[in-house]
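Memo to structure team: turn this sequence into structure tokens by end of day. - J.P.
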Amino acid sequence: MRLNNVAALVTGASSGIGEAVSSHFRREGARLLLTGRRERLDSAEPDDLYVPGDLNDEAFVEHLAKQAAESFGTVDVVVLNHGLQASSPLTEMAYDDAKNVLESNLLSAFLVMKHFAPLMPEGGGSFVCVGSRLGMVGKPGEVLYSAAKGGLIMLAKGAAIEWAARNIRVNVVAPGLTATPIIEAVIRRSPDPEAYRRERESQIPLQRLATPEEVADAVLFFASSESSYVTGSVLTVDGGYTAF
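Reply from structure team:
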């Protein structure tokens, strides 16, 4: 098993990519600390530790780190999968909404990195940030989200250099449009769901959405020793979207 006895934190574990990452890690032998906004996590297994809360709150992140230290001692892998997407034309977005997008995608990631890097063992560890293809390309109506995910990429690159001497690796998985429950619900709410799905798929060279499991495969690679000489990298899992 590629993560045998590895202690791992997965944020945004409630559904979609986070749930798929948790399943992959569990299968590979990891001990899991999971967090999300839901009070209960139905997908959690008896051996998992689930702590609900708001990662925008530094007091909660400090509490989460304390829980990790008490339960595991050290934390080998941290997957930053949480985030928030809010679509709006730039000139019509409310300032509070813009702040919320930046806090939920970027500043909360900084808080987790700040409080969990000290918990990584002397031999090093791995942070895996789940970004987005929109952190690499612009798109109308998604400007603040792109800014936040682009900032996450640069946060990861800077941290990778700063922590290289400690052998703490920091990498980014940048998914394209993924068939998570949230995205599937958006498609179903459209006036013509099948036409809307075909339209979105037509913008992707591979002509389909990613599955959460395909994104989780990339996260698992960065979490495992198979990527032991990789840090500061961005791996796109977008069906070729950013290759244009």
